[in-house]
Records
---
Amino acid sequence: MKIAIVGAGIVGVTTAFELAQDGHAVSVFEQRSAAAEESSFAAGGLLAPGLLSPWSAPGASPFPTLLGSQSTLRLGSALTLAEMSWLRRWRRAARACAKSGEPRPPLVALERLARYSQVRLLHLTESLDLRFEHSHGTLLLLRSPDDTKTLTAAIKALRDGGGTLHEVDADTARSIEPGLSPALHLAGALHAPEGLSGNCRQFALVMRQASQHRGAQFHFNTRVHRLAGHPIGVHVQGEATPRPFDAVVLCAGAQSAALLRPLGQNLPLVALHGSSVSAPLREELHAPQGVVVDVQTQTTIARLGQRVRVSGGAELGRGTAQAHPQTLNTLYRVLGECFPGGVTHSSGLQVWRGARPMLPDGPPAVGATTVPGLWLNLGHGASGWSLACGSARALADQIAGRTPDIDLEGLGAQRF
């Protein structure tokens, strides 16, 4: 088939690879000048366990606080009705999960997809001999005994899915991550030895090359401003008529909702912005070896080759293009508390802020729409890096008329 993909972030390029691998004629349209220039550019490095990524789903991390300098969710100067509705639904789902202590269906669906995606990523890395910065092991820091309680549902979902998660004391945590500051008070930690971290943008670029070697064509600096419904196609800005395709896969992140609306497809998709700071490695012994999650502040610190990336923050609503000053203060503070002396701040710092296109129950929308030929692979939120390879393979199987190797219950757009 002749298939168009809108968006060349991590989800778009992995989808392009899987479809090109299946023999389809793939065209990828991206408004920026290169792949992974927006949400995937400097995302947090946590790959697995995907469910432990802050803001992956309601109930997967502590309940968000809205007030004070230590708030984990910051609201912009003006929220739209859609954003307010999204926030109510997210908070309602998080409360229900916290009250029951049991993993709700969206949490189970997200864990299932994340585990499948990790297997697929490892297969691609080995079979294609892909080279990108990555490290092994995930450690969740528990600053107080209550931190464990906030993760009860996520921990149960992980273990029910077959994941390995060890409860360890502070001394064991420091033996796993020797660079942790001895002054940092810890009540304990959770250790996932099979955890992974990696450079999302590097992986996206090597996957773009692998897609091109299989015939996929990438059209950069090309903005799709409208979708055609009958027959299916894309309207490229500056062109009078739409380009026809047998199928269109929408992977356009936060812009997807506006493209879907004229076709009667209404998804509660919003942009939840996060930030990261990447700093050059100063002293190997004082830096993280894998990825560390600070549960209390909902931040991650990942080792990416000769750099360390600390990421976190959640901003909803209208704001500036720059990272919120208090979010940056939190990132610098957590990095200094956990790994003092591990990085240099004098030069080579990269500060980034990007959108996480998220749906209110957590999992992405993967599959067909009610418009013939229009498919979705979007809404991965903070878990795009963790879910991309699995959702791309599952979608390619659906388009080919095959039964995917994973149960996709709870991932269809029709759930909204």
---
Amino acid sequence: MVEFIGTNAGLVWSALSEGGKQSVKEVRKATKIKEKDLYAAFGWLAKEGKLFFEEADDELFVRLV
């Protein structure tokens, strides 16, 4: 499972590296990762200090640090 989460974290990182700040919905669409797996990948990257989250207009956005 750890390898699966790490692989998804790589997909998220790539999507954010190419697209910059995005909503969670946009990241999910770009990566085609299931919602629960997407949040696990976010957790992985957040623990490494690679993500910044912000909420605007009742929507969650994420970008690389």
---
Amino acid sequence: MGIFPETGQGIERVSLTDKNILLGVTGGIAAYKAAELARLLVKAGARVQVAMSEAATRFVGPLTFQALSGKPVLTGLWQGEGAGMDHIHASRGTDLVLVAPASADFLAKLAQGRADDLLSALCLARACPLAVAPAMNREMWAAAATQRNLVQLRADGVHVLGPAAGEQACGETGPGRMLEPAELMAALPGLLGAGLLAGARVVVTAGPTYEPVDPVRGLTNLSSGRMGYAVAQAAAEAGATVCLVSGPTCLATPPGVRRVDVRTAHQMHAAVLAELPCDVFIAVAAVADYRSDSAAPQKIKKDTGGLDLHLVPNPDILAEVAARPDAPFCVGFAAETERLAEYAEAKRLKKKLPLLVGNLAQDTLGQDSAELVLFDDNGAHPLPRAAKLAQARSLIAHLALLRT
């Protein structure tokens, strides 16, 4: 069922037939990944034109990309038959400019509107969307200047894909690795308006909620938010406009997703209602069922006699949204500790949901992978254990089929 498995298996199912992609390559060791990306783009049916910065040619030769794309590679403002106008002509008729890898220096150029070489001039003169896949050392990524440039680029409508975290060529470990070619391929249909949810407005909730007992204590749960953030990313990859309503987490906002931070169940309830109407609502968050009826204004002092709390129900956000006259396509999540099929299906029927995702909490909470079961009117559909992003992509593919 997974359309974009994280391993890259099945990537041949991504169709970019007749799409014109201009692949920009800047200087950095990650340039070798761009060769594989060019191969996958051509295999998916795209027409690929490669443009390289001078620094990029020091890492991978232009002939490599010419052989993969079947077209001469653009490397200079004054080369070829463009009479000095390749930076204008190259983006005309192009569906997307994708710069991968995008170095820290190149991001700075884009943010400042500089155009002192072919690739930067081409990006400034383009008449199509622009996406960048950053790749750099972790300290360069974290630098204040780089982060300021990213804020500006996003405000300018540039799609920032990644980076990932992990081992780097310099020997250090941290954020700054370029996304793998298969991961970039997964994002392209959404950027090109060809995704399974193209044009849809999607609201996703994620993470735990926190219900205060006093200023320093509260009721919460073990949800990390990873599954909800993966679902938001997968929906954005599928072309949807995504709002992520998130409880307290330490996770970075997925590319192309608008995030609203909340703390309590009541705040999440208000934030979700403010985003309606929408086309799809996916309630992944582990919302507290109860809260203290009166949080103490000061820290409660320890008493050997114990502490009694009076708990009252929180609003059932999913049930309320699903019961609206203009209800979106609603997807629920059920984390159980036993009798998964029985309890999950009962929850789906009670709330009248077209789709519910079930899992055993002890096998999923806080982990990077999950084993899920999708419940709908046609029965149960198991998803064997896989990374949460791969599972999220499978979920999006399944709900897209149900909506048709």
